[in-house]
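Checked the freezer inventory, then went back to the computational side. Two predictions to log before the end of the day. The first one is the construct we discussed on Monday; recording sequence and tokens without edits.
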Amino acid sequence: MDSGGDAEAAKSMGTGRVNRWETLLDVYFNELGPMNQLFGTSKHWMAHNQYIAYLMQVGIVGLTVFLIFLIRFIVKLYSIYHRTRNPSVYAAFTLLIMYVFYAFTGHPFDYTTLLWYLMILLSMINVYEVHQMRNKQQKLKAITDKNFLLNKTQLN
């Protein structure tokens, strides 16, 4: 049954992206040496996929670190939003998710302006988390001090 389109054209997604990804992954697995596979080639690869570009540029080690940061922020933002229902946290979460999905077909982390917006939002989230941790520590210290004084007065 003919779908009315060329299989090769469908594979290219109209811009040759899939073919480019296959070519770069073939280069990564079959042409790069072990050190370049681990730590990358330091070249800028126009892969039309941020993850494949980072795999080529900074190797599996660099890509893994990058993915750990992304996953850490996604989980952190989700948990903070789930606890607080803060619209700013939701905006940061949504922006990060958009970046993550856009990275499959482009290079959003290479656009300085967009990256600055994301970094500002993620920094705000880190400041919020530090503030929350300090509040918890202060409350815990106050409870501990109160218990210490209560025990001390009971002993006297």
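The second is the one RB wanted added to the comparison set:
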Amino acid sequence: MTFAEMTPYIVYIFLVIVCVATILYLTTRIRELRRKIVFLKKETNELKKILRQKVEEKTEKKKLRKRYVVFAILTEQKIEKKSLEEAIRANWVRFFGEKSLIKADPQLIYYDPSVKRGVIRVAHLYKDELIALMSTIKKIGEADCLLVPLKTTGTIKKARKLLYSLRKDLQK
């Protein structure tokens, strides 16, 4: 067999050697990358734990401030203060659970049935939950109604001022 006849075999052998070398290189590279991925997963899990601990420490150390949500009730019927407070608490437990109810401690501070407006006090971390909850209350006792949050403040004094000054068209 001459060299000219052997050339295709040599090229074939050379290509096989190159392919094998490439496969070996890629497998070692894949192993290295897998090790790095495992290491990074461990690191991210540790960072998540540290971050979770920091958040818990901040929420535990932080003094719970109060927020006052001024609201209006759109309804034709008269609504009692007690039934309104019961509806808020019952829906809170239904949507967010008793543990959240205890932490948030929503309280109906003031309610004026003549203008159908009131003020609810809640922990500042749960203000958004209260506002979302208000949109879900469609019935209080036997009365069909709609709770509309008007404004959120940090002081009860400001809330009482806002009670009668905001949106006179909702007093109907």
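For RB: Residues 7 and 13 are 10 Å apart (CA to CA). The chain has five helices and six strands. Let me know if you want it refolded.
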